[in-house]
Automatic annotation (TrEMBL):
This is Short-chain collagen C4. The keyword Transferase does not apply. The chain crosses the membrane at residues 12-30. Residues 47-88 form a coiled coil. Keywords: Coiled coil, Membrane, Transmembrane, Transmembrane helix. GO terms for cellular component: extracellular space.
Amino acid sequence: MGLGKTDAYNVYVIIIVVNVLLFMSVNVNGESKRLLLNDPDVTATRLNYLESMMATLNATVKQLTTENQQQKQQIFQLETALQTQQNTGSTYIRWGRSTCPNNNKTEQVYSGFAGGGYYSESGSGAEYVCLPPNPDFSKRTGTNSGRMYGAEYDSNNLFASNSMDEDVPCALCRSVHSTSNIMIPGKNVCFSGWRMEYHGYLTSAAHDHAAQSSYICVDSAPEYIIGGVDDHQGKLLNNVVARCGSLKCPPYIDNYPLTCVVCSK
């Protein structure tokens, strides 16, 4: 950080005083002689020297003031950029895991339970939801029109061994250095310029279930909720396979389970 105007002025005064004292005494033929203060030549020389020093100091003060302003502007820009970065971010749900990816670019909002409508009820909601572990209730009674169930794995060989009927965890994650995220079906790596959050298998309800369903990406190394092995049905998670016909084959292959990846940018 440069000198302030007060510091520069103090330096200026000190230099003037020192130089006046030096001019008061000069060496002539090796002897110290005191000069007459009313000598016109000496006075002119002093004035010229002082004017030169003043010009130099004024230029220095101006330069330091400019540098100080530039540094203040740079600090302001850096603070603004930092604040903007802290206020950005995109969110996604990591299905099948209770934690977010372990890196310094992702923070966990909460860990919860996957849920949704009952697989055989035609009026059920299509979306899977990630329910928090600490719900807030405002009323004690309801009409029982809409229903929320927990989610279970409905496959024993795709997600993990012995996964059938296990309850599904989830985690809501925030990617702190990104502004958007996408789930790409049929891929397990991100496109260039995107950062992978996690990859896994594309999942939905079974095609012959009455309830509608959306597609989600379940982590390739899923976890289970402790104590959730009982077969209560609810919102079910099944693997999704490619079916040739209206879907172009190749590149897709009939009855092959589809992968997926969640990417941020």
